[in-house]
Amino acid sequence: MIDEKLLNNVSQRLKKRNLTIATAESCTGGLIAHTLTNVSGSSDYFERGVVSYSNRAKMELLGVPDDTIRKYEAVSKQVALAMADEIRVKSGVDIGLATTGIAGPTGGTKEKPVGLVYVAISASNKTDVKKFLFSGSRLQNKESTCNAALKILLDYLTQ
């Protein structure tokens, strides 16, 4: 379940600070963009969202280097950071927010299990990525990732 209180707090702070945001999502499939735009007046801060589910989409739509994907694989902190940086720059916004991971229930390996997710934020004065390991159903993992991304965004907005 999406944390509505967290969402409203993020929305108010984005509006108050007059900041814009764009999302680049893989494992969340657009859920963060959907969630951010569930608030009336979100057009004040939300520019766009890109669902770059495949490696090809990450390269073509965002400009994530092929060698980064080959070297670290799509589910990695390096790719998450590249996605966040690229969506911020290409969209001309203040903040880029990106997710990549394995929602499940299939697709995991011993090294990269189901529920492994990286969430990255990119702004002109800060770039960061956090690693998570969720253990719910596919939808629960997507919702947990969305809430984690909103929390990372709120942390940035309150510093």
N-to-C SSE series?
HEHEHHHEEEH
Average pLDDT confidence is 97
Q: Termini separation (Å)?
A: 26 Å
Question: What's the CATH H-level homologous superfamily?
Answer: CinA-like
Low-confidence stretches: none
- Work out the strand percent: 15-25%
Shape: globular
Helix count, DSSP H or I runs of 4 or more residues:
6
Strand neighbour order, sheet with most strands? 2-1-3-4-5
CATH A-level architecture: Alpha-Beta Complex
For the sheet with most strands, the description reads: 5 strands, mixed
Q: What's the number of domains?
A: 1
Radius of gyration from CA coordinates: 14 Å
> Tally of extended strands?
5
- The helix content, as a percent range, equals 40-55%
Describe the structure.
- The longest helix has 20 residues, at 138-157.
- The protein contains six helices and five strands; from the N terminus they run αβαβαααβββα.
- The protein has 159 residues and is of the alpha/beta class.
- It has a single domain (4-157), classed as CinA-like (Maf protein, Alpha-Beta Complex).
- The chain is globular and about 45 Å long.
- It has a five-stranded mixed beta sheet, sandwiched between helices.
- Strand 1, helix 2 and strand 2 form a beta-alpha-beta unit.
- Helix 1 packs parallel to helix 6.
